[in-house]
Write a structure and sequence with these properties.
By secondary structure, the protein is mainly β. The chain folds into two domains: 146 residues, Immunoglobulin-like (Sandwich), CATH 2.60.40.10; 95 residues, Immunoglobulin-like. It is 8% helix and 53% strand. The strands form five sheets. Strands 1, 3, 5, 6, 8, 10 and 11 form a seven-stranded mixed β-sheet that branches. The chain has a four-stranded antiparallel β-sheet with strand order 2-4-9-7, with no helix packed on it. A hairpin with a 5-residue loop joins strand 15 and strand 16. InterPro entries: Ig-like_fold, PapD-like_sf, Periplasmic_pilus_chap. This is Fimbria/pilus periplasmic chaperone.
């Protein structure tokens, strides 16, 4: 049998991505920005993260920062807390209709040789409810991607391979393996991408290009840390689930 205290407080944790499919208004808490680019030295070693509370009640939140690694081509959060990324304040209580500013600051090596990446989690904390009140508390949980690079460092993205993966619907979709031999991170989604598919007999059956804004709708920004290789699916339906696909990335000026 569930204890009385547990009956009064049942927490439901939602990530920012889950809000879009949950039917729960995503405007109740608003975190901006959700992608942060910092430099390891100079004026851009810090920035401000803002949380807006549009609830009618006070919201307590806690911020934590953990390192990211690339494992099997996937960007994964580790259990390692970030000692060189300062988040201040780490906890706050935000009144209804108010905003709270948090400072995100790199305090590590100013001359890093490789890019560093983190998830800063903004987690809404449960509150104690009055006696004899049963309720379900929906707790919002936002992940903010923070990347740190050295001033003057450059990325060098290259498409290593393109595979066609067929889903349960029988439709083929392209999956890129993109490497970065540069000394800082790069975003695939900030390039122009041209994709060509040829049938097994060599005939060209698809040729299409996407500008950065369009490409980001299909695959996100496509972060590739320095010295890493990422597996990046593109959400398009290919005319055939077989044949060969080639991809060309073209840098776009002033992006």
């Amino acid at each position: 049998m569930m204890p009385a205290a547990a009956r009064r407080l049942v927490g439901v944790l939602l990530t920012a991505a889950a809000l879009l499919a949950s039917g729960i208004p995503a405007t109740a808490l608003n975190v901006q920005p959700v992608i942060i680019d910092l430099l390891s030295s100079g004026r851009r070693t810090s920035t401000v993260l803002t949380l807006q509370n549009t609830f009618s009640t006070t919201v307590p939140v806690e911020l934590t920062a953990r390192r990211l690694d690339v494992v099997d081509g996937e960007l994964r959060e580790t259990d390692v807390e970030a000692e060189d990324l300062l988040v201040f304040p780490a906890q706050a209580t935000v009144e209804p209709g108010q905003s709270q500013a948090f400072r995100i600051q790199w305090v590590g090596d100013p001359e890093i040789q490789a890019s560093q990446h983190f998830f800063v989690t903004v987690a809404q904390l449960p509150v104690v409810l009055p006696e004899n009140q049963n309720a379900i508390q929906v707790l919002y949980n936002f992940k903010v991607l923070v990347s740190v690079g050295a001033p003057g460092a450059v990325s060098a993205l290259a498409v290593q391979s393109v595979a066609i993966e067929t889903g349960e619907d029988g439709v083929g979709r392209p999956v890129l393996m993109v490497s970065n031999s540069g000394n800082t991170y790069g975003y695939v989604g900030k390039n122009r991408l041209t994709l060509v598919q040829r049938a097994p007999n060599g005939d060209e059956i698809l040729r299409e290009s996407w500008e950065p804004e369009q490409l980001q709708q299909l695959m996100g920004l496509g972060l590739v840390p320095s010295g890493a290789t990422r597996r990046l699916p593109i959400n398009i339906r290919l005319p055939q689930p077989n044949g060969a696909v080639t991809v060309e990335l073209t840098p776009v000026q002033d992006r």
